[in-house]
Automatic annotation (TrEMBL):
Signal sequence extent: 1-22
Keyword tags: Signal
Gene3D superfamilies reported for this sequence: Osmoprotection protein (prox), domain 2, Periplasmic binding protein-like II
InterPro entries on file: ABC_Gly_betaine_transp_sub-bd
Protein's UniProt keywords contain rRNA-binding: no
Domain ABC-type glycine betaine transport system substrate-binding residues, every copy: 41-301
Pfam families: OpuAC (PF04069)
Species of origin: Pseudonocardia adelaidensis
Name recorded for this polypeptide: ABC transporter substrate-binding protein
Transmembrane segments: none
Record's keyword annotation contains Protease: no
Length: 305
């Protein structure tokens, strides 16, 4: 108990320091980068503010540079509510995104949940000047995660939790309170309204520590997070598909999607797998804390890219 409480305090302090140093963004702040667009022959790549997305952005960047494309990096922008408007106004040109949550951001009334249906709807509904390229097989879904003890007491499916959610504190990123598949979706689909919401980080060490030491009893984590297995956490089943398919996909300004760019990014998507993402995240979490660019280069080399 003392060890995880210390981890929570240290992780929280780290997040505050990162924010103070300008390394983070308010995930609910008004969106739009407010920057002049990159040069016509340059791809300015953004990322969300969690490690996997930064890594995917770096993989995109290195694959494009290998193809002879000039790249600018602007990683750790914040949540979709921040970077999506910036893609539309030209502040950024490309970001790695996830099909299901991206579709629901564009169309909160979207009902598609299966991978192909979600992707087809996304291609049709992405607003100009944005488009998506080929989706990968790699999928990283949001999930409601509990400890093994909680799962033993209350069940291993969200369908079991309607009567007991009022006893549980939920933790997750601030935007999870309002996203269609966040707390509103869980309440509508499963009749589950939690006792309290604690705003934590985006599937990171603060959330993991809070769940481990009982500060929260349920949390939003990503299914590719090795911390789930390492801590013996349980991903609750989602039989009503509150969380749609979430395949990794390049979201790009269509004016920058030249054949040279498209071919390089589609080649990356063809190689990405869910198990591969889990292993990449495990590498990022290794005790020696390798740099994102080193992990990205290793993956590209191993996959002949």
């Amino acid at each position: 108990m003392k060890r995880t409480s210390t981890l929570l305090a240290c992780a929280a302090a780290g997040l505050l320091l990162l924010s103070a140093c300008g390394g983070g963004s308010d995930p609910l702040a008004p969106g739009g980068g407010g920057q002049a667009p990159a040069a016509a022959d340059t791809i300015r790549i953004a990322s969300a503010d969690f490690p996997e997305n930064r890594l995917l952005a770096e993989i995109y960047a290195q694959s494009l540079e290998k193809a002879g494309v000039t790249v600018e990096r602007d990683f750790g922008i914040g949540a979709r509510e921040v970077y999506f408007p910036g893609l539309k106004d030209g502040s950024w040109d490309l970001v790695p995104d996830y099909t299901g949550v991206l579709l629901q951001y564009i169309n909160p009334d979207a009902t598609e949940t299966e991978a192909d249906a979600v992707y087809d709807a996304l291609k049709a509904q992405a607003p100009a000047p944005l488009t998506v390229l080929e989706r990968s097989a790699a999928e990283n879904k949001d999930a409601v995660v509990v400890t093994a003890a909680t799962a033993q007491q209350h069940g291993r499916s969200l369908a079991d939790y309607g009567p007991v959610c009022g006893q549980l504190v939920f933790g997750g990123p601030p935007e999870f309170q309002t996203r269609p598949d966040g707390l509103p979706g869980i309440a509508e689909t499963y009749g589950c309204t939690f006792k309290e919401f604690r705003a934590l980080d985006t599937g990171g060490p603060v959330t993991v520590a809070a769940l481990a030491d009982g500060t929260v009893q349920a949390a939003d984590l990503f299914t590719t997070d090795p911390a789930i297995e390492d801590n013996g956490f349980v991903v609750l089943d989602d039989p009503q598909n509150n969380f749609a398919a979430q395949n990794v996909v390049p979201l790009i300004n269509s004016t920058k999607a030249t054949p040279q760019v498209t071919d390089a990014l589609n080649a990356v998507s063809a190689k990405l797998t869910t198990e591969g993402l889990i292993q990449l995240n495990r590498q990022l979490n290794a005790p020696d804390k390798p740099e994102v660019d080193t992990v990205a280069k290793g993956w590209l080399t191993a996959n002949g890219l």
